[in-house]
Design goal:
Layout (H helix, E strand, L loop, with lengths): L1 H69 L7 H23 L4 H71 L3 E11 L5 E4 L7 E8 L9 E9 L5 E2 L5 E4 L2 E4 L2 E6 L6 E7 L7 E9 L2 E10 L1
Antiparallel strand pairs: 1-2, 1-3, 3-9, 4-5, 4-8, 4-10, 6-7, 10-11
Helix pairs in contact: 1-2, 1-3, 2-3
């Protein structure tokens, strides 16, 4: 009888234990069920938020890439500028939509499609800008090459021009007339017309320059004009201000001028010059010019 009582107590204990375990399992299952249900109900929202953040990041990456393309040293044509402005407008619209939030899955799908199109546009746009940059480099190279050719050509022309000037100068020197055996005499012309040679400044009123020309086969056999410049002992040029000629690259005044025929035949020539002033004591210098250069010079001293 005692053994039966003990067995009954043991069986009751087992039953109570099993009931506790079952209750615990039911509690756990209930918790898991409600937990999973709660997670399931919040999952779409979390997924949407994650997708929205990802799209924001994609838009920012596309904008950065577009900015990077614009860093290239290229002047964009009107079409490229228009395409870029359109893309930036789309980027701003997407950024604003994503900033506002509360997007449905359909909205996010559409945004994703627009972002994909933008990504493709930026890729094509980048290729266009790169091609334009390469064309500019090529054109710059061609321009620099042409510029170099033009510069070289100009340098050659300048060099040829200098050489031509030198050659022309040499030819002029070769063709120019040169006087030698220049003799200067002072005379007094009396009222009767008689001419008397003198040596004193007080009695002289005319100088006569007598000279020969160096034989020159290069000089033209034609009429040549010779200019005389007379400088008094004080260093002053005696000349009419209206008497002008050009020699040695500058305008000069002359005292008198003559024309004579050159035949390269050892002919002697003479220039008579009447002083419009009173002669003074000292040395007078006489310089002859022809063909734009000095032909010869001489001096005479009057006492």
């Amino acid at each position: 009888m005692q053994a039966d009582n003990t067995r009954n107590k043991t069986d009751k204990t087992k039953v109570y234990f099993l009931m506790v375990v079952i209750a615990a399992l039911l509690g756990i299952n209930g918790y898991l069920y409600f937990s999973n249900k709660s997670s399931a109900s919040s999952s779409p929202s979390a997924s949407l938020n994650t997708e929205q953040e990802r799209l924001k990041l994609e838009v920012e990456k596309i904008e950065v890439e577009l900015d990077r393309v614009n860093l290239s040293n290229v002047n964009l044509n009107d079409k490229l500028i228009e395409e870029q402005n359109h893309a930036r407008q789309k980027i701003e619209e997407l950024k604003e939509a994503l900033r506002r939030g509360e997007l449905t899955q359909k909205d996010l799908d559409e945004a994703g499609e627009k972002i994909s199109n933008l990504r493709n546009f930026v890729k094509i746009y980048n290729n266009k800008v790169t091609l334009l940059e390469q064309e500019n480099v090529y054109l710059k190279g061609e321009r620099d090459s042409l510029k170099s050719v033009v510069t070289t050509s100009n340098d050659k022309n300048v060099k040829l021009e200098k050489e031509n000037k030198k050659l022309t100068a040499k030819v002029r020197v070769g063709e120019s007339l040169k006087a030698y055996d220049i003799k200067v005499s002072a005379f007094k012309i009396k009222q009767s017309g008689k001419i008397t040679g003198v040596t004193r400044a007080s009695t002289a009123n005319q100088l006569t320059i007598d000279f020969a020309l160096v034989p020159n086969d290069l000089a033209e056999k034609k009429y040549h004009r010779v200019f005389l410049r007379v400088i008094d002992p004080a260093g002053n040029l005696i000349a009419d201000e209206n008497n002008m000629f050009e020699a040695e690259g500058q305008k000069m005044q002359y005292s008198t001028a003559i024309e004579f025929s050159f035949n390269n035949d050892n002919t002697r020539y003479k220039i008579d010059w009447i002083n419009p002033r009173q002669f003074m004591k000292g040395i007078y210098t006489l310089i002859l010019y022809s063909g734009g250069s000095v032909m010869g010079k001489s001096e005479i001293e009057l006492r």
